[in-house]
Amino acid sequence: MNYVLATANQDKVSELVKILGDDIQLTARPRWVPEVIEDSDSLVGNARLKARALLGATETASLADDTGLFVDALGGDPGVLSARFAGEGASYADNVAALLDAMAGMENRRCEFRTAAFMACPCGAELWVESRLAGSIAGHPLGTGGFGYDPVFLPEGGGGRSFSEMTPEEKNASSHRFRAFSGLGILLRFHTHP
Ligand code: IMP
To answer: 130 in helix, strand or coil?
Structure first.
């Protein structure tokens, strides 16, 4: 079965190929398909918007995901707004700096990454999984790898290291995205098209 992905980012495509396995064929989002405005107030809602828009444009079963970092002491912020916590067009470094500022002096650093992975099929079926990965926010950035909030995210069970201090293989084998797409992969294998 072939699926088109809501991302054109080759690194993400390769990561998902590894997670979903060889029997599920993935194609990157064609360049002519415009990006979608992600204005839902939930991760599943945004992933659904992306998958359905892609399905409408390509008439092919479509996969999309949406991720957010939810920090307990900030009442769940930045959450669905993780990509623009420091404002529209903010860089990863801006967002990390804004997060550390917002948490200055806070003792409770508990947080979790959540990812929603969504499939929209031309037959009308919609399948989705939302997964979580618990961790805590470091006091300052650690390591140089990864992207986004990786330098300040210390996953539970990671020995106090941030995602940025791990190899891509180590991060990808335990990440929130891995958990969500592994679960969705199981559902996809049970999905029979009428
Ligand atoms: P997206 O839904 O995958 O585009 O993720 C939204 C935002 O969450 C990104 O802009 C990043 O700031 C953050 N994010 C998503 N995945 C990761 C990750 O694996 N590590 C660190 N930050 C991430």
So the answer is: strand
